[in-house]
Amino acid sequence: MAEKFESLMNIHGFDLGSRYMDLKPLGCGGNGLVFSAVDNDCDKRVAIKKIVLTDPQSVKHALREIKIIRRLDHDNIVKVFEILGPSGSQLTDDVGSLTELNSVYIVQEYMETDLANVLEQGPLLEEHARLFMYQLLRGLKYIHSANVLHRDLKPANLFINTEDLVLKIGDFGLARIMDPHYSHKGHLSEGLVTKWYRSPRLLLSPNNYTKAIDMWAAGCIFAEMLTGKTLFAGSYYVKKLSTRETNFSFIYKWDSFYHAQASHNSYKIIYYSLLY
Question: Is 207 helix (H, G, I), strand (E, B) or coil?
């Protein structure tokens, strides 16, 4: 692992100066590496996401993400501490200065794990699933009140501290500010976002962006927490959703629901989230 991380470090060319020490890999995405480090200024571990700026389009996407995360501050959203340039340089409030950089670092709150890793161990107790769903909906309510759509809710983007059972929404790389005059066409290709948590509104109409797309994903995630199974995994259900008329009767037929140790109230939460 150490050799692999060292190789990734060399490839991505991390340059944060001497402030951040004890770097450890957390994940590798299409635009770079996410890692944790100890901030020597406060002696706390943080998570750092590097965004590589290779062309005007990547700069545009980075500017959009930074604009969004700077306007969000909530208990159920991963807190962003600062945005840094190469060598750990401080960036001014004028984010337009990114056009002169080749990379930017987002320093944020470190979380123990994510929901995807937790679910690899199997379904959750209903009381834990409901607690996480409550926190997810609480965070979503705040995000939507800030006129923002996350657009990429999935277990891997929900971060958890298992000791106190705190859930926080993270990774706003595909988030957008709700604006009827803005064209969202082309930003959610199949290569970027799994279809398993995508609303039929998007499968049928790629520009149909409302709060409902996040609520649909939340319902799918809650069902997965209760059953340990992805609600719409595989091409069959994706095709079913993509070609559906207005009939959701097949929702009631999934064996995973009937075999889950969940109450009728939890089932209703899933149902109404999907129909939001």
Answer: coil
